[in-house]
Write a structure and sequence with these properties.
It is built from 26 helices and 12 strands. By secondary structure, the chain is an alpha/beta fold.
């Protein structure tokens, strides 16, 4: 792991050497600037001590509390407040010392020590050590002395101001507390005025006495009613009349008009009885008498209605009944009057009983609600007590705060006046400073290089690529080293039969054969597609060399240049593409121009179908029926068809082609493949069920291998041709140091 880290760091240093050099020179230059600075002059430090202060005599709780809180607010910001420094500067100006508040704040150091480290007594301070650095002894001591006096006075003013704020706050709160107390007292007084008599009656027993008296009265009335009922029953039996009938008979018997009408009716009836014996019914006298009797009877009933009031006591009787009921003798009339009187008394007692029952119910309800009334009164009394306690507390606190004005002093006092000493400036060794600057510069420069390398997502070594592919569980078919040539005009193709790279590509071909057989139930892959995540990763060289290895293994192999967005690279194998193919790609793949498949000279069993690119509408050509027929025909004619497909980030052409192949071979390359892009591609391959990945190839790995023999020129080119197309395909750095070509080459 250490060797891999050193290797990667050396690569990063080679890439970012100028950044590292700038970082080193920047730090080293700063140290050089510090080293050449002259030795600073001596300074003077004036130092003194402040301690906590307490009043000589303390009688009030507010004074003690203010003193403790005043010690708790002693902080560096408090001791160097802007208003304090302003007053100090003004005081110093009268003494002829010119200094600014910023100078005082910048050159003053404050160390605050609390008692027992602040663990037992909160923020109570033990002492405050204050130092002031200045370039003049007298001015340093004068500035710190005035600053000490200002700090003590500022603490005293702060404490007095806080006490004044307390008194003002209590004065503002007192009227509200007094108003709340008065309101609570008035509520209690109003409640006592309304419910007090009932509560008092319950407390002294008069309410229970009233209930008992009502019960006794009702029992007495019941006894009286029982006696009246017995007596009324006896009278009714004697008279044969109800109280209502007795009243009517008594009233009718006592009326003189009714008595006179009765007398007249008797006389008329007597005359009629005598005359009916001698006269007929039609006799005028008989008729007059009968009419008189009817008139007397009508007058009798009308008078009876006037006397007894119709049907209020009883229905209006007939004339015979009236004559009968109005014929009471004096003794029976007296009994009838007595019966009516008993009935009246009985009705009065019954009404009295109802009133007594209603009154008793009210008394009982009042007695049952007495606990709630008592609780309500207790609640109101409690409110009065709480309001009075709050009012008394505010009054007491206010009096205590007013009395504390005489005890208010500063929370700090001067324990040790300022004392001044000289501070000799230390001279620095320029050599040591430069050495330290150089060491720090090396660390900074190296750190910048490492940081930039970490921020760069490019995979720099084949070990990193191998680890990433292993973590993604992507099968690795082979690791191909850099194919170094002695001339940038020679393409890195393994055309020589004894090439040192032949065994590597043969092993790649065998691994690809086994991987395809596993995916297709023992059937080897017949049409594969070689692609990469981006350009310049070596997919074209990998496809060409893999095809050469397969052809040498005896398999009839076709290289199909499927990147229709780029120029054909068939010239690498000595093949000249058809110029008309670019103009008419559909006719080209349909075989109307010429046969797209051409034999590669110098390599047996190897054929190539040059690309018809560049095409502006490559997807249309790929999805055309001519291309589909061409692919089917190629699969039928050849043992192995290798599609040199476009890289994945440039277009979607590869995805259009992969469905017609047996699988994909993904080519990667150290120092070119980007980690985020490769991870995304592998995740997409894993998530898709339609994409078959045969494996991956690490191309251009930095591993030792023999150099290609420069006497083996590529097929179809004389040694002196120069291969201008190949030169243009290489990046400038690869032309200077010949290595494997770019991905599209």
């Amino acid at each position: 792991m250490a060797a891999a880290f050193i290797k990667r760091y050396s690569m990063a240093l080679n890439r970012y050497k100028w950044v590292g050099l700038v970082g080193f020179l920047g730090v080293f230059g700063a140290s050089g600037f510090v080293a050449v600075q002259p030795t600073p002059p001596d300074t003077f430090r004036s130092e003194g001590i402040l301690v906590q202060n307490t009043p000589v005599v303390s009688f009030t709780a507010t004074g003690v509390q203010l003193q403790q809180e005043g010690q708790g607010i002693i902080t560096e910001d408090f001791l160097l407040a802007d208003v304090l420094l302003g007053e100090v500067v003004n005081q110093l100006s009268t003494q002829g010392v010119t200094v600014s508040p910023d100078d005082i704040r910048k050159n003053t150091t404050i160390k605050i020590d609390a008692r027992d480290g602040g663990r037992n007594r909160g923020n109570q301070l033990d002492r405050v050590t204050i130092g002031f650095n200045w370039d003049n002894r007298e001015e340093a001591e004068a500035i710190l002395s005035v600053l000490f006096q200002g700090m003590v006075e500022f603490s005293r003013i702060t404490n007095r101001s806080r006490l004044s704020n307390i008194v003002n706050a209590l004065d503002e709160r007192l009227p509200d507390a007094e108003g709340e107390l008065r309101a609570a007292e008035q509520a209690l007084e109003a409640y006592d005025r309304i419910e007090g008599p009932a509560i008092q009656a319950a407390l002294d027993g008069s309410l229970l006495g009233s209930i008992s008296g009502s019960q006794n009265q009702r029992r007495q009335n019941q006894v009286t009613l029982a006696g009246m009922d017995s007596e009324m029953e006896s009278l009714q039996a004697q008279l044969g009349l109800t109280p209502e009938q007795a009243y009517a008979s008594s009233a009718l018997s006592a009326d003189p008009i009714i008595a006179q009408l009765r007398s007249q009716i008797y006389q008329a009836e007597s005359q009629l009885q005598v005359l009916t014996q001698n006269l007929r019914e039609a006799h005028p006298t008989i008729i007059d008498l009968r009419q008189s009797l009817a008139a007397y009877d009508r007058l009798l009933r009308e008078r009876a209605r006037e006397v007894i009031g119709g049907g209020e006591l009883a229905p209006l009787p007939s004339g015979d009944v009236v004559r009968q009921d109005s014929s009471l003798d004096p003794a029976r009339a007296e009994l009838a009057n007595y019966l009516v009187a008993l009935k009246t008394q009985r009705d009065a007692l019954i009404r009295q009983q109802a009133l007594l029952a209603q009154s008793e119910a009210q008394l009982r309800e009042e007695y049952s609600s007495l606990p709630n009334k008592q609780l309500e009164r207790d609640r109101l009394a409690q409110q009065v007590g709480l309001k009075r306690a709050l009012y008394d507390q505010i009054q007491a606190k206010r009096i205590d705060a007013q009395a504390a004005e005489a005890e208010t002093v500063s929370s700090i006092t001067i324990a040790s006046p300022p004392a001044t000493r000289r501070i000799v400036a230390e001279s620095q060794n320029p050599v040591v400073v430069l050495l330290l600057g150089g060491m720090v510069g090396l660390v900074v420069g190296g750190g910048l290089v490492l940081l930039l390398d970490m921020l760069d997502g490019t995979m720099r070594t084949h070990e990193d690529l191998e680890k990433l592919l292993g973590d993604a569980e992507a099968p690795l078919l082979g690791i191909i080293p850099l194919i170094q040539t002695h001339s940038s005009h020679i393409p890195p193709l393994i055309l020589a039969p004894d090439s040192a790279y032949g065994d590597l590509y043969e092993r790649l071909r065998s691994n690809l054969y086994l991987a395809g057989a596993q995916l297709q139930a023992g059937k080897p892959p017949q049409m594969i597609m070689v692609t990469s995540t981006r350009d310049q990763e070596g997919k074209t060289i990998t496809a060409f060399n893999l095809a050469i290895a397969a052809a040498r293994a005896g398999r009839r192999t076709l290289i199909l240049e499927a990147d229709l967005r780029s120029h054909s690279q068939a010239r690498l194998l000595g093949i000249t593409p058809d110029e008309q193919a670019i103009l008419e790609p559909l006719r080209y793949y349909g075989g109307y121009l010429s046969d797209p498949v051409q034999m590669v000279p110098g390599v047996e069993n190897l054929y190539i179908a040059p690309s018809a690119g560049p095409q502006r509408n490559a997807p249309m050509v790929i999805d055309s029926s001519e291309m589909i027929r061409f692919l089917a025909d190629a699969q039928a004619r050849f043992d192995l068809v290798i599609l040199d497909a476009p890289h994945l980030t440039g277009s979607n052409d590869t995805m259009l082609l992969q469905g017609r192949t047996d699988g994909i071979v993904l080519v990667t390359r150290p120092q070119l493949t980007e980690k985020p892009v490769l991870q995304t591609v592998l995740e997409q391959f894993e998530e898709s069920e339609d994409i078959r990945v045969l494996g991956t190839v690490i191309n251009g790995a930095d591993i030792p291998i023999q150099t290609v023999d420069p006497t083996d020129p590529p097929v179809g080119y004389p040694p002196s041709s120069g291969h201008p197309e190949v030169e243009e395909s290489y990046p400038p750095e690869q032309q200077r140091v010949p290595v494997m070509g770019p991905v599209d080459f």
